[in-house]
UniProtKB/TrEMBL annotation:
Keywords: Membrane, Transmembrane, Transmembrane helix. InterPro entries: FA_desaturase_dom. It comes from the Bacteria. Residues 30-275 form the Fatty acid desaturase domain. This is Fatty acid desaturase. GO terms for biological process: lipid metabolic process. The lineage of its organism: Bacteria, Pseudomonadati, Pseudomonadota, Betaproteobacteria, Neisseriales. It comes from Neisseria bacilliformis ATCC BAA-1200. The chain crosses the membrane at residues 124-145, 205-223.
Length: 305
C-alpha cells in the first residue's frame, strides 16, 4: 500500500468513527456519553494530524497533478471535522513555523510590559480547551465579516496585547487569503450541519464530543513548545508518550523533529527523533502558568518509544 493510500484509508476510517461516535453520543444514556466523547477526542485528533500533513503537502508524496489534488481535497475533508478551512489552517500553521518562539509566540514567558490578565487568560484558555472554541468562532467570524472587523479586533487588543498574543500576525495573515478560503470555512460548517440533520445529532452530544477533543487537542498544541529553547527551528520538544498514543496522534508528539524537518511525513519522524521530556512532565509544569525569564522548569530526557 502506498503512503497516500494508507493516509486516505486512515482518514476514511477516522471520519467514519467520528460519524458513529457523534451519533452515539447524541443518543446514548447519560452514562455512555463520557466514554464516547473520549473516543471521539482520539479519533478527531487523528483527523487533525492528517490535516497537518495536508497543510505541509505531505499527505500524498507528490504535490503535483493528481496527488496534489488529493492532498487538497483530503485536507478540506479533514478541516471540516475541526471545523475550519484548509487555506486558513495552512496560513496560520506556516505563520507559526516562521514565528516559532519569537516575541509573538512566547506565551510561556512573562515580559516587562505584558498585559498580565491577557497573558494568563490566553494561557489557561489553551489548557482548558477554550482555545479550540476561540479558533472555530474566529474562522467563522472571518468567513462572515469584512476586513475592517478583523482590523478592529487587532486594535482592541492594543499594541502590546497584539504582539504578546500573536493576534497581529495571525489576524493579519487572513488578509492574504481570497474568497475561496471563506468558502472552505462555510463548507465545513455546512458539512457539520448536514450530518447533524441526517443523523439526528443533539447539541449535548456534539458539545460533549468536541469538548473532549478541544481539551486533548488544545493542550498538546502548546505543551510541545512550552519552556523550550527560544529558537525558531529548535524551539519544540519530542515528547515521550505511550507508543499507542503517538500512533493515534500520528507522531504529533515528535514536534521538535517536525520543526527541524517539516518536509517529513508522520511515519518518517521516529527515525530522526532524539530523546525528549515526558509529555506529562511538561503538561504538569504548564498548569502553573507562564513564568518569568530564568524561571523555566528543567526536564529530564526520556526515551520516546
Amino acid at each position: 500500500m502506498t503512503p497516500a493510500a494508507r493516509n486516505v484509508l486512515i482518514l476514511a476510517a477516522a471520519s467514519c468513527a467520528n460519524l458513529l461516535l457523534l451519533t452515539a453520543a447524541s443518543h446514548a444514556p447519560w452514562w455512555g456519553v463520557l466514554p464516547t466523547a473520549l473516543l471521539f477526542a482520539l479519533a478527531n485528533n487523528t483527523v487533525f494530524a492528517l490535516l497537518h500533513e495536508c497543510v505541509h503537502g505531505v499527505f500524498a508524496p507528490n504535490r503535483q497533478g493528481r496527488a496534489g489534488r488529493l492532498n487538497e481535497w483530503c485536507g478540506r475533508l479533514a478541516a471540516a471535522w475541526f471545523p475550519t478551512g484548509l487555506a486558513v489552517q495552512r496560513v496560520f500553521h506556516l505563520t507559526h513555523h516562521r514565528n516559532n518562539r519569537s516575541p509573538s509566540e512566547q506565551f510561556d514567558i512573562i515580559h516587562e510590559g505584558d498585559v498580565l490578565w491577557l497573558k494568563y487568560a490566553q494561557w489557561y484558555a489553551i489548557y482548558t480547551g477554550v482555545y479550540w472554541a476561540v479558533s472555530v468562532c474566529g474562522v467563522l467570524l472571518y468567513a462572515l465579516t469584512p476586513r475592517f472587523v478583523r482590523r478592529a479586533l487587532i486594535r482592541a487588543f492594543g499594541r502590546r496585547g497584539g504582539v504578546q498574543t500573536g493576534a497581529d500576525d495571525y489576524i493579519g495573515a487572513l488578509d492574504r487569503l481570497g474568497m475561496s478560503a471563506r468558502l472552505e470555512v462555510l463548507g465545513a460548517a455546512l458539512w457539520q450541519l448536514a450530518w447533524a440533520w441526517l443523523l439526528g445529532w443533539t447539541w449535548t452530544g456534539w458539545l460533549a464530543c468536541y469538548a473532549a477533543f478541544a481539551l486533548a487537542w488544545s493542550s498538546l498544541q502548546y505543551t510541545d513548545h512550552a519552556f523550550s529553547p527560544l529558537d525558531t527551528r529548535n524551539g519544540a520538544w519530542n515528547l515521550a508518550a505511550p507508543r499507542w498514543l503517538r500512533l493515534v496522534f500520528l507522531n504529533y508528539h515528535l514536534h521538535l523533529t517536525h520543526h527541524r524537518h517539516p518536509e517529513l511525513p508522520w511515519y518518517e519522524l521516529p527515525r530522526r527523533a532524539a530523546r525528549g521530556p515526558r509529555f506529562l512532565d511538561v503538561w504538569l509544569a504548564c498548569l502553573r502558568g507562564p513564568r518569568r525569564p530564568g524561571d523555566f522548569p528543567r526536564f529530564t530526557e526520556r526515551d520516546i518509544v
